[in-house]
Amino acid sequence: MGDNVRIVIDTIGGDNGAAVCVKGAVKAVKKNPNISIILTGHADELNKLLASEKYDESGIEVINATEEISLHEKPVEAVRKKKESSLVIAMNLLKEGKADALISAGSSGAVLAGGQFIIGRAKGVKRAPLAPLIPTTGEPSLLIDCGANVDAKPEVLVQFAKMGSIYMESVMGVENPRVAIVNIGAEEEKGNALVKETYPLLKACTDINFIGNIEARQIPFGEADVVLTEAFVGNIILKLYEGIAKMILGELKGAIMASPKAKFGGMLIKESLLEMKSKFSASNKGGAPLLGLKGLVVKIHGNSKEEEVISAIEQCRAFVENDVSGKIVKGFEESTNGD
Amino acid sequence: MGDNVRIVIDTIGGDNGAAVCVKGAVKAVKKNPNISIILTGHADELNKLLASEKYDESGIEVINATEEISLHEKPVEAVRKKKESSLVIAMNLLKEGKADALISAGSSGAVLAGGQFIIGRAKGVKRAPLAPLIPTTGEPSLLIDCGANVDAKPEVLVQFAKMGSIYMESVMGVENPRVAIVNIGAEEEKGNALVKETYPLLKACTDINFIGNIEARQIPFGEADVVLTEAFVGNIILKLYEGIAKMILGELKGAIMASPKAKFGGMLIKESLLEMKSKFSASNKGGAPLLGLKGLVVKIHGNSKEEEVISAIEQCRAFVENDVSGKIVKGFEESTNGD
Known about the structure:
Two copies of one chain form a homodimer.
Chain A: E1 5-10, H1 17-31, E2 35-41, H2 43-51, E3 60-64, H3 75-81, H4 86-95, E4 101-104, H5 108-119, E5 133-134, E6 141-144, H6 154-170, E7 178-183, H7 193-203, E8 209-215, E9 226-228, H8 231-257, H9 260-268, H10 270-280, E10 288-290, E11 296-299, H11 306-321, H12 324-338
Parallel strand pairs in A: 1-2, 1-4, 2-3, 4-11, 6-9, 7-8, 7-9
Antiparallel strand pairs in A: 5-6, 10-11
């Protein structure tokens, strides 16, 4: 496979089954011959799905898994015990250097646990944050950490700020990304104990473009490229985004169905609305990378479709080709020396 | 004024000036003769505004203030020094029992500081939370605490749960209100250290209807009547609500203006959309009471209009007539005895 970017996809656990992974993989290798894919899962099913597709067969490999990790299992236990699950097989391929990146739509907890216990953190990295791209009125922002490390310490948040900054610059092509910390006011002296301790550390960093506090109401308007926060708050932000968007779009539908006049009006704006809806769907932005590990692990939403799989593959390619992992490790060695 | 509910309104500091307070006050006393209002602010201006209104003059009194507290002042300092400001005069009226409730659209920080230092907490109350009603697909929910006490301890959150429950039952008429704690998962063992410590304490409370965790994505669907959370997270939730709603409604406008066809469609659904927009406006739900003080202090949004002032007056009336303060104090005496 030479200089190809090798991506392993765990095909079990997503709401839409293995077919979306297979279709996404086929399209991705057709579009970019420098990508090669390994699919882990039920080999019979995968081979059958692949048989109906036309593609360069050297670009996709199938590895059979005899176990499954369900959403209801205790993540750490499941990852430790189920060595023959599609996720653990994929994790081991990444660990052994047989793949450069891993994508899974399965249990978030199991993906986080596998990342931590099988792949392990890169040198110098204290904690590995989950960092999805979230929709804004402009370009998407990176929300870091959105659930991997609750009650993290200030020095851990500073590392997240640096990782997020490297990611946005290298993978998303944002020049000198603006990093802001989520706070309950715009002024420097506001906040809880964690933010108050973290703020001066961020201010002292010379390798990031720290712009200060961001209030939650500014987040949807893209006022920072890297939206830094502790995992509990980050998870609340991510899920509230989803909840409010769902509520408003639902109410909008209700408003349109309320009268024959409005119904007719709704038909006329349907296209524009669908476009808008797709923009708000956090899941179409390529998934959430778990940063700071020895290999790239990307968690995609459980209900991901073909497009999201393709988008995640593309994100992995950019990540690997731009050596984001190497840059993160290098950044931390330098900053450790500088301490 | 006899058995009237006496409400003092600080008319300085809101974005829309004293006129909205005057108009709201006039309408409220016309509608309900059992309400009497004191307006603190620039007496000349207030009297001039009142002169053009027809109402029972015994129902509204004006008290002159020679100082103002601006949004940019340090709250605690401003409240301590500016004894002749409209807010401090109003606070003192409440403290001295010359008013039953206070409404202000001015600086949140100053309102919180005044509540704490001038009014003071009721007996048994550890901290006074700010608790706005937030819009959901059903009836509004109470979000408690949304910014008054960051880094609060578990036993403080338990008190907030009880106060919120009493409020929703007595003021909003919700029978046996469902209390849930904001968490990053539905399972009992999830969460940060604060939530993990607070959860069993809530579970052990016999005087509230604790239904467990609520994830942020469920909040907009009204899955709890009292949404309990620490102030930092609560403030993020409140402001993100505002930000995402603003973003989506802005994008919706953009989508409608995008083509002549969509523009025509938009005209047909305009009424339904305006109705929807009003539903999402958190500010029209009567403001945020600061609970657990010796008197009722209600903070309304800086950009409140006449309707919001009326709605806050109505909320104050229900609060006073139902003796919510007394019930809160009683609840805490009982639970303290029970400990």
